[in-house]
Design goal:
This protein is α+β, with helices and mostly antiparallel strands. The protein has helices at about 1-30, 35-55, 90-95, 155-165, 200-205, and strands spanning about 60-70, 75-85, 100-110, 120-130, 135-140, 150-155, 165-170, 180-190, 215-220. A hairpin with a 6-residue loop joins strand 5 (about 135-140) and strand 6. The longest helix has 30 residues, at about 1-30.
Length: about 220
Amino acid sequence: MDFIMQNCAKTDKKSARDGARINVRTRDLLGREPSTKPRMLWQRWITATLVFACFSDAGADFKVAEMQPRFVKQALVLNGNLELELNAKVEEALSKGIPLEVVIDIQLHRERRFLWNPKIDAWTLHRRIQYHALSGQYLVNTLAPEAEVGESLLTLTEALKQLGSLNGVTLPLGKTVTEHEHTVDVRVSLDIEALPTPLRPVAYTSFTWHLNSGWTSWKVTP
């Protein structure tokens, strides 16, 4: 009888242990916080998708390809070319009749060996390109302070070339230039502020519309 009771006691202890294990496993399955790994992977995938969407159309950009500055009396004369390449989104907007305006920033600095280069003068040029669906032509305009001239071209390639052509652009000097070496800094960018008002918020928040050459420097001596 004692043997039976001892076996029963052992059985009860084993059952209790097994039951405890089952309860622990049940709590693990029901009460444990769900794994965050799938959620993190999902968030990373969404982030990567958004980044790709921002940069997928941002391959095109502006570039100051060539610049030959020279001084003529009390003026700075520029001859050069700006490479203005549009991406698919910006080109689509242009084809729908939305005018695009580019800003050409120019700064003249006098070079100094040990100190910063003082700025002698600065200018800002504006040019516009627009597509006319009825005529099927592109209209390129130079705006003030340049002479306001308009020209019609048949293809986008020709229009962009004309838009970025700087032939004999004369910029009056407000100060007398001394006999020192100077630097002309040039930058061209798409003017987002010149876009239609409803399009500006989209343009400001999208890399697609941020077309900018950055500053380039060119030597010039009186």
